[in-house]
Amino acid sequence: MTDKELFNLNISVLIKKDRNLAKKISEADSSKSTYTGITTAKNGMSVVLFANSRPMYSLYNPTPRSQTETSEKTFYLVTGLGNGYHFQYLLENGKNRILVVEKDTHTLKFLFSHQDFSSILQSPNFLLCTVEELPQKLTESYIPQTCGIFNYTANRVWAENNPETEKNISDTVQSSLKQISADYSVQAHFGKIWQRNIIENLFILSKQKNTSQVKIPAHKKAAIVAAGPSLDKSIVILTDNRDEYYIIATDTASQVLFLNGVVPDAVVSVDGQNISYRHFLKTSSLPNTIYVLDLCANPAISKAVANNSGILHFAASSHPLCAAAAAFFKEQTGTDVFPFLDSSSGTVTGAALDFAIKAGFANIELFGADFAYSNGKPYCKGSYLDETFNNSSLRTETQETAFSALMFRTPLIYKQNGVTTTETLSQYDSAVQQAALQHASTAKISKISSDLQPYTLIVPPNCLKKQIQSDFFAETLYNSLNFADFITWILKSIREAKGKSQADIITALLPFAAWCEKKGFYQSSKDSFDRVLDLAHDFFKRYAE
After folding, report:
1. Which residue of 29, 214, 411, 430 is surrounded by the most CB atoms within 10 Å?
2. What is the widest separation between alpha-carbon atoms in the chain?
3. All structural domains of the chain with their residue ranges
């Protein structure tokens, strides 16, 4: 084949898997490639050369196996595409998944014009990217629940000829794996809890009466109220100017507001743990308050609100089973029964901010959003922890002792004026600030500090575009939700996914799979995912009986 014919062949295969990368390669300049030539090994095989004329492989035997392949399912990150000889054998058993990262699209264009990669590119277990795309590609493609062990394989010759690029890749791998590991740990802990909560909340909702569309006075200022220590002082703004605000309380702050004579207009909760119900022991029967709950939230909350004839609205977070449920019921009812609520910040304050923005508020103020310990306190007065720690306090272990243990459970980061924070709280703060920055053109978002004035702006005020009020609360027809049909669909989807490597239901079950692995019911490096499907089938079947 001519160089042009080889290139067209490779691109025609790649475009079916990654249209964006294929387009970038087509537009690249092969003269800027990290490889500069081709030579022939003694066995007649082509070998690429670097700028110093050094071959990437041995000219005697270009295809030695560089490592002993394990019997366990493995995800390989391989540096350098080269001629493909150093990783092609890893695709032979069909269990491994391989992501090859090359320096840039200029280099890929050169290689595509000199080597036939069509059979490799066609493999469903082969992925290709450049260094620029690696952070996103790695976090998207390495899924521990299905890919098993992670193996970083650096081609020695390629690394020696691209030292800075290799260092960049190594740093990216470390940071990406840290994030993947953190996400996996959370899923392993909460996987079954979330799954149970979603199903039980759907069952509770299917028994509810219709809830009409809620009209939100978006012309008012929205107050998002968290339970940080600064709320002790800033709450006076809300008590003295109640009519100016549409108050959106986080679950932690709802009881604090109630004890101070302020009934919130809405309460947002995303926490699936049983302890989250403690926030609602005094506030689940407020007749005019809208309870905005993630489908993953503790179903004891929705049950209490429903039993008290409260206004209950649910949203779907990024949990894949939430997304599956939202898509199923949208198709069944013809409406977005479960609007998307972004809780990716990891904090309910971020979810409440997302709700306020989607509800159409152009002026949003955050109260008690400290994400820090100030005045030696983790929370404001009146949170559920006050009562909990006070009831369990002894002379030798006082309420202060319990609060100190809470604050010092992880290493502290010291800030100015005796304020301390933690790595997790700092991440929450950064996530909320990023959300504010993202929406700076449509909403003025301010943070109220403990000195009450001046306001501390999270982002500078901008020339705001006209805010269009969202239909976040479209008319919900909860009693038209056919719970039995949903369970039947899940069970059918699970049966049809057996023996497959990819299916929507497999994605929906990934958090549950992480929990199964933590409990020892499944080993991602050895077992087929069918094992998780069997366990999930048993779980959902109980709700069909």
Report:
1. 214
2. 87
3. 3-161, 208-466, 481-544
